Amino acid sequence: LFWTFLFVFGLILAGIGMYLFLRSIGISVPAALIASVSYMFAGNLVSTTFAGHEGRLLAMAYFPLAFFCWHKGISTHKFYWFVFAGGVAGFSFLHGHFQLTYYGLWVAFAYFIVQLVLNRHENTARTTLKLIGFAVMSVLVALGILAVNYLPFLGNLTSGARGETRGYEFAASWSLPLKELFDLIVPQFSGILDNYWGENFFKLHTEYFGIVLLIAAILGLVIKVRERKTLFFLITSIIVTLTALGGHTPFFKLIYYLLPGVKRFRGPSMAFYLAAFSIIVLGAIGIQYLLDYNQQKKNLDPNIKKRLKNWVYVITVIFIIVFITFLIIKSNADSFIKDPVKVKAFMNNISHFWSGILISVIIAFVSTILFYRLATQKLKITNFIILIIPIICFDLWRVNSKFLRTVDHPNVYYAPDEVVNFLRKDTTQYRVHPLYDGMFGLRVQYEHSNDGLLDLYNIQNVGGYCPNPLQTYQDFIGAENKLTKILLALKKQ
Length: 493
What we know:
22 helices, mainly alpha, about 500 residues
């Protein structure tokens, strides 16, 4: 139950952190509220519930709050803000998804360097050195909290399956395929769950964070691309997206060889949450521009009218590209998709794509009208908020709801089953090994083989689940050979 409530806590924390950060960079309450709703219900966060990845969710939820504290420290020169930033980052590390927080720290580091460069004329040499010292202390605070979890087994890390470097192919595995970026426009493009036909073996999440803030981000770029904060988050979103694409672009080799520790990671697609964060910030900047223009109570400048038209043209072209790309894949599915199972998933997904693109077009059209009426003072700010937030929630719920599954109450789910009742009759000393689908060529599956039910009733389990098993055990059961075959199959595809 506590684990379940962690998901709820994480979503609330993500919204609060995003709101505080946006307010700290000069975004008004209405725009910050709209963008915060989009981030806290973004697919990167909510869809983690399907596979039970609360560690991922919390790492993504802590980031805006840590970034807020980091920004406040840089802008106010107050030491305690750096301590808070380090504390939040440290707690983020504790939840197990080291990789996500690690990528976030690099974004924070880049932001710190950019701010020092931009403010070099205002800051004295002493102030600059003081800020660098505060930043170092912030990192030490994070590492101190991190040490609580990592020091006890640091010496044995290289003995674990995740402690060894396995080469570029392993690090680039589970990259985000390039064509799945179309999912940001039409979330059903590459298929959801059983209908997923993408290049990875399976996909239990979505990167979709809503079409409304994406459109607003395009607006922000069209109108305010030369602003410093706009440029920073634009460049950040591009670099992080290239990182998430992993082995599908040469850029990941730079990350692989230059950033320490990346050689021990896999699944670069997990970094995309930082792109979602950056694009949503750009969306908040775009909405803020419209709100400011609304309050000026004057007619649209001809130059602004031209830019708004360009904004609509860009959105239209993007939808046309998505539509044509899907038609091309549909007409040559066997050529584009090698796996017959994935071809079947693609065919099953066709109807979902058509309904998905229709809904996305309607939401984009309605949102564009609301944005335009806001800019031309034909819609009050309060009414705009009342209309746009439900649209955002509906847009995200139509996707996220597919990842929200319920199970029985723990008293029912973890009640002793027939297997447990049978084994408990044996009072001698023994161990069991629950076989599962495909092991040793058997077609047997025990549904509680990895969820701790046997351990709960003091039945010693040879199998079980460990996120970082001993490498010697992995070699003993032949897991390394299976992984090699999987990677070779991926490479051939």
